[in-house]
Amino acid sequence: METNSNGCNLNRKDPKVKRLKTSGTELEEFDAVFTDLVEGLVNQGKQHKEISAAVDWFKEVCLYNVPFGKKNRGLSVVMTYKRINTDATESELRQARVLGWCVEWLQAFFLVADDVMDKSITHRGKPCWYKKEGVGLIAINDSFYMENCVYAILKRHFKQEDYYTDIVDLFHETTMQTVTGQCLDLITAPETHINFDEFTTERYTAIVKWKTAFYSFYLPVALAMYMAGIKDTATHTAAKTILLKMGTFFQIQDDYLDCYGDPEVIGKIGTDIQDNKCSWLIVQALAKVAPEQRQILQENYGQPEEDKVLKVKAVYKDLDLEQLYRDYEEESYRQLLKDIQSFQGQLPKEVFTDFASKIYKRQK
């Protein structure tokens, strides 16, 4: 029987493995941990009475921004750990849930700052944090706070573990990767001017890999791997290769939904066209356009006026980008399944198929 370095069962024919899925009960267990973590942060801050006003403010920051997403990244830590360690104790599962919430706090840090930079209006179906009355650019400091919550939680719950430095280093590395990707995104598509020469497939792929794929896909799995005692470089490298491809697949879906998704379903109003984003749609359009269509895009892309946005979307329709996306989705999914089948390492392949099944043909 195949095991990991901690002796955990990795038998891929185990019926418990085949049936594993995110249940309503697991979501409830995951959510219950959040309340405890917030109270822990509040109690730590309240030890110093002179900062009680800041502690109360930060509590509201966390309650508004952290718990209301889809929680896919955080839950993925738990589900991956369950795949690796099919005999996990409740104590171990709670630790996995704490790690999952650390990913959600990191996500909230990124999103609050990103919304300010992108001038977004809504997120997760409600006004962006910086748009709330009395917040404004205080949101920048609030994003810093949420990043530091990650390390406060890790220190409190994992300092005694032999993998503590591994997960702290992983969070630092992932944050550096993500802010690097954000920088690429911002300098490729500045507000001041439009330069379609920068909107290449190579640049787009780099932005997606560094801004989204590392923290959304590799981070949750790597955290579960470290917690389960899987540290060998070969397994991490092989897993990362597949997970980064999934991250690209996921971001292209996001770009498509930004333009064609229902705001009521996806929880935000898409602004990629107005924001001059180097999105998959504009990159594909520029590769297909006739000169007169490119001129229309040049004159209207990156502009806030609704009539200009509609002109860009009209070019997208003429180029049939919706069908191009559907073809891409099918082909990319088939390739992902091939990559999963050929994976070699100390992980059950169901770790990857769990991700694939969640993101394939998603609507939000």
UniProtKB/TrEMBL annotation:
It is an enzyme of class 2 (transferase). Pfam families: polyprenyl_synt. InterPro entries: FPS1-like, Isoprenoid_synthase_dom_sf, Polyprenyl_synt, Polyprenyl_synt_CS. One of its GO terms (biological process) is farnesyl diphosphate biosynthetic process. Pathway: Isoprenoid biosynthesis; farnesyl diphosphate biosynthesis; farnesyl diphosphate from geranyl diphosphate and isopentenyl diphosphate: step 1/1; Isoprenoid biosynthesis; geranyl diphosphate biosynthesis; geranyl diphosphate from dimethylallyl diphosphate and isopentenyl diphosphate: step 1/1. The keyword Secreted does not apply. Its cofactor is Mg(2+). Its EC number is 2.5.1.1, 2.5.1.10. One of its GO terms (molecular function) is metal ion binding. GO terms for cellular component: cytoplasm. Keywords: Lipid biosynthesis, Lipid metabolism, Magnesium, Metal-binding, Transferase. Belongs to the FPP/GGPP synthase family. PANTHER family: FARNESYL PYROPHOSPHATE SYNTHASE, FARNESYL-PYROPHOSPHATE SYNTHETASE. This is Farnesyl pyrophosphate synthase. It comes from Mizuhopecten yessoensis.
